Amino acid sequence: MDRWFGFSHERLDAYRVAREFLGNVADLLAGLPRGESGIADQLKRAADSVFLNLCEGAGRRAGKEKAHHYEIARGSGTECAAILDILLLRRLADPARVAAARVRLHRLVCMLTALARRARGEEEGGTPTP
Q1: Which domains does the chain have, with CATH numbers?
Q2: How far apart are CA 5 and CA 11, in angstroms?
Q3: What is the pLDDT of residues 44-86, one digit of tens each?
Q4: Whole-model pTM?
Q5: Alpha carbon distance 42, 48 (integer Å)
């Protein structure tokens, strides 16, 4: 059975990876000890920003606007990476779960970088396409 894709972001592999990363984040948040609401909120907001800006970028028509949202999503992704480091440094989360989230996040940030380049009309090396 064919799946109907109603929105442009649903066609992106990055969308699927971002959804999976949100699942990783939900697992990590559920396991955080009491008294860590500040870092939990920061991770939730940054992960949500990755997802929402990816979707908003996919819905934009102009390349410059698309790239802008993908770059915001990428920045929020790197913020998530730093927060994951904090979780490890403070021993607040299971290292295996953090590692799984980092692997998925790294893949997602690479995808967002490629989407931004493509939206700006650049090739992989950063050179504008003719």
Answers
A1: 9-120 (1.20.1440.60)
A2: 7
A3: 999 999 999 999 999 888 889 999 999 999 999 999 999 999 9
A4: 0.85
A5: 10
